[in-house]
Amino acid sequence: MAATGTILVVDDDPAICVVVGEALRRQGHKVKTAASIRERSALMDSFAPDILITDVMLPDGDGLDGVADIIAGRPDLNVIILSAQNTLNTAIRATEKGAFEYLPKPFDLNELTRAVSDALGTRQSAEVQDGEPGLPHDGLPLVGRSPAMQEVYRTIARVLSNDLSILVLGESGTGKELVAEAIHSLGQRRTKPFVAINMAAIPRELIEAELFGYEKGAFTGAHARTAGKFEQAQGGTLFLDEIGDMPMEAQTRLLRVLQSGEVTTVGGSKPVRVNVRIIAATNKDLPLLIEDGRFRQDLYYRLNVVPIALPALRERREDVILLARHFMERAAQDGLPRKALADDAAQLLMAYHWPGNVRELQNLMQRLSVLSRENVITAEILRHMLPLDAVPADHAAPADQLAHAVREWARRQLGVGFAQPNRALHDDLLAVVEPILLQEVLSSVDGNQIRAAGLLGINRNTLRKKLTDYGLDPMQLRLND
């Protein structure tokens, strides 16, 4: 039987308190709710909860303030943070304060109840101190509030307090090096060097010399002993970009270094002890390279301790305008003319497929800042800058339009951030979409049910049942209606 406990839910939205409270009570927990920091403080003493679930934005202040002190006084207390701010900064702050879990709004109710169960099963015993002074919060390199980026933020927050190897996966231009920089600059090694090396940009014969260094006379042009990237990153972080392009012989030597913690320079014989955190990145399918004999499986397992998958920009279109304005603001801070986006330009940016991902968007914003004479960027100006195959602002891909419409519908239905108990959202969505699909298909074939069933990929009996269920008359669904 799952463990039960006492839980305090703090949120100024009564709907969230009611739904979360009822869901937890059904699981056997004792629950009380509060709407402010003041009420939370009073109940922390009188109710003494095992789990604290608290929002960040509360009427009388920041819900994260005081969390570290609460945990310091109650090391056995687990805290789950909810936030609609949805930034990397919030995820990092929640982790620094000692939070057990951070869930961005809108959140899934099942995910929250699972977090409560996990928290009760792994009660913290170590006192967690408040965030260290000087830890950077502003100017963080990653921008985005989409659900896909929230998962990235949560993973980053969880790896800051350890030295586990990270493998960052994603297409070119998604910002893999920014993830590595964020982990380094926010983690335990931030006062030490961050050293990056791109395997695809170095001639194969020089990769080992670049990584491990070389002795004087080791090869033609080696006029003095030179430290490699491992030694340069001593105590800090070594970022191995495009690891999938590393030659097999260099992979073998890299694996040996990772296993032993020692490097031997090219032409040298005395090993040097190194202490670095490894973050690797690739846009290639490493398991496929392993099957083809082009990447070592044992090295893959060494690097892929914690994978972080960065979404392509087309997979997080809700971040496009946020990023575009961020890059324009950065360009203005660098002395370029300040520009603004017109609504039609924003729509065009949202519709474009971004094969070059975030890097392409950044370059475009910089180009517009330099070359455009207009202070407000319109869709007409953008069309001269984007490739010829860019999607017109009013002709986004049908699949994208449908996905956007479904996403907006789902968010409206979820309302307070999660589905109401016993709410059949799947059936609700079908009731909206399926009749439209049936009507349009039947209309296109002049009411012929056999042809319609073929187009829909279902049998005729299934089609007839659906028509009956929705009260549709196929004889009325004709092209001329």
Short description:
It contains 20 helices and 16 strands. It has helices at residues 14-26, 37-46, 67-73, 88-96, 109-121, 147-159, 176-186, 207-212, 229-232, 248-260, 286-291, 297-303, 320-333, 343-351, 357-371, 379-385, 398-414, 425-444, 449-456, 460-470; strands at residues 6-10, 30-34, 51-55, 57-58, 61-62, 78-83, 101-104, 166-169, 194-198, 237-241, 262-263, 272-273, 277-282, 306-309, 340-341, 376-377.
Overview of the structural elements:
The chain has 481 residues and is of the alpha/beta class. The protein has helices at residues 14-26, 37-46, 67-73, 88-96, 109-121, 147-159, 176-186, 207-212, 229-232, 248-260, 286-291, 297-303, 320-333, 343-351, 357-371, 379-385, 398-414, 425-444, 449-456, 460-470, and strands at residues 6-10, 30-34, 51-55, 57-58, 61-62, 78-83, 101-104, 166-169, 194-198, 237-241, 262-263, 272-273, 277-282, 306-309, 340-341, 376-377. The strands form five sheets. The protein has a five-stranded parallel β-sheet, sandwiched between helices. Strands 9-10-13-8-14 form a five-stranded parallel β-sheet. Strands 4-5 form a two-stranded antiparallel ribbon. A hairpin with a 2-residue loop joins strand 4 and strand 5 (61-62). Helix 4 (88-96) runs parallel beside helix 6. The radius of gyration is 28 Å and the shape is globular. The N and C termini lie far apart (60 Å). Residues 123-139 have low confidence and may be disordered.
